[in-house]
Design goal:
The chain is an alpha+beta fold. The chain has helices at 3-27, 32-35, 38-50, 54-67, 72-88, 92-105, 112-125, 129-143, 164-172, 176-181, 185-207, 214-236, 245-254, 256-259, 275-286, 291-298, 302-305, 327-336, 372-397; strands at 153-157, 160-163, 264-272, 315-316, 346-348, 351-361.
């Protein structure tokens, strides 16, 4: 290349470079960092989140996470926030990814106790039940070291053993009437199944973080308050009540009518749908048909019909022990009849009844010894109520308390 050609080539390059620089200068586009910073990106994501546009906010936060220069703590914290947002939207797989990201990026994060339950929650909700159970057990093992028990194993849940002593302890806490229902071998088997099922339901609730529900926490706080109040009352009142024999006898004498047994009868019955049918049944009974046979054949009351018309319990005067209503009229008929007598049809609850009086029991006032236990319980409850009222007034007077009951009557407090 000759000297002239070289100079022309060099001039062309310089000219092209100059045009380029001139064009860029003419556009006057400022650097990106001056127009849209990482801080702008974070603020935008926050505004979208505050506006309820969760998915859009997640998108912007993820862009910020990818491009901003964050230390491991900031990275973990933001990943956790994004994970929670995904959970709010029901996207548990993506939430799980973010929680794992937070856990991996900063193993010593202050959010460790929060991230663990969230991971278990997401695993449970995505159907990864074994993984959720494993994570729950791992978490529990990290929190406390369980002492191995000895004894008969009643059930096994995963690697955890449920011992017979646990079942028996729970069984012993049941009220007596309920114990009787599950005292058989079959009943105890059903109770064992329920015990284990309750444990599984509880674990599922923990995995789903129901224990952190504001509503549940409020109810637990209320239950705790009631238990503490009951304990105070028990210590201040219940354990200090002494039942003296003379006081108990005086109580019985003052309330003797309460323990009296009313006049009562035992009956057999036949139930008919129409008065005419009841009258026809009465005629057949007069002609020689037995009450038992007619009850089995035609009575609409299936329970007594299966017992040949017999009503098992006593029917007290003035009480609806039969459960058919029209108490005054039914009582008048029953208690004016003699033993063995069959009554005329009696209307009650839209049906007509024929009764045969099987036994009669006069009004009876039991002795003190016969009802001592029952009277003792009643006396104790009365004392408990009286002492509680006294304690209530005492604690209100001893504290700086002002009551404004008028606010519940529509008035205003003074």
């Amino acid at each position: 290349m000759n000297k002239t050609a070289f100079i022309l080539s060099l001039l062309s390059i310089c000219l092209a470079l100059g045009v380029t620089l001139f064009g860029l200068n003419a556009i006057k586009q400022p650097p990106v960092s001056d127009t849209w910073t990482h801080e702008h990106q974070r603020i935008l994501a926050g505004k979208l989140k505050s506006s309820g546009l969760t998915l859009e906010a997640i998108k912007e936060y993820e862009n910020y996470l990818k491009t901003a220069s964050l230390d491991k703590k900031q990275f973990a914290n933001l990943s956790y926030v994004i994970g929670k947002m995904y959970m709010e939207e029901g996207k548990y797989e993506k939430a799980l990814s973010q929680f794992y990201r937070a856990e991996i990026s900063d193993p010593d994060t202050d959010l460790k106790t929060e991230i663990g339950p969230k991971i278990i929650n997401c695993l449970e909700r995505t159907g990864k039940y074994n993984a959720a159970e494993f994570a729950l057990n791992k978490r529990a093992a990290g929190q406390e070291e369980k002492k191995e028990k000895v004894g008969q194993v009643a059930a096994i849940i995963g690697d955890e053993k449920i011992y017979a002593e646990d079942i028996n302890a729970s069984f012993d806490e049941m009220p007596e009437w309920l114990k009787k229902q599950v005292s058989t071998k079959e009943g105890k088997m059903e109770y064992l199944k329920k015990y284990v099922a309750d444990e599984l339901f509880f674990r599922k609730g923990i995995k789903l973080e129901y224990d952190k529900s504001p509503e549940l926490r409020k109810r637990l706080a209320k239950a705790e308050k009631e238990l503490i109040v009951n304990k105070v009352v028990e210590e201040e009142i219940k354990d200090k009540i002494k039942v003296e024999e003379d006081d108990l006898k005086n109580f019985f004498e003052a309330h003797k009518k309460k323990y009296a047994q009313k006049e009562a009868v035992k009956v057999s019955l036949i139930k008919a749908g129409m008065k005419e049918i009841a009258e026809k049944i009465a005629e057949e009974l007069k002609s020689g048909k037995t009450f038992e046979a007619m009850a089995e054949e035609v009575s609409l009351d299936k329970q007594t019909a299966g017992n040949k018309g017999e009503f098992k319990s006593w029917v007290r005067k003035g009480e609806d022990d039969l459960g058919i209503g029209n108490v005054d009229k039914v009582s008048k008929v029953l208690f004016s009849a003699k033993k063995g007598q069959i009554t005329s049809p009696v209307e009650a609850d839209g049906y007509y009844y024929l009764f045969r009086v099987e036994e009669k029991r006069p009004e009876y006032v039991p002795s003190f010894e016969e009802v001592k236990e029952r009277a003792g319980n009643d006396y104790f409850r009365q004392k408990l109520k009286s002492n509680y009222q006294s304690l209530l007034e005492q604690i209100l007077k001893s504290s700086e308390v002002k009551l404004f009951p008028e606010v519940f009557e529509g008035g205003s407090a003074q």
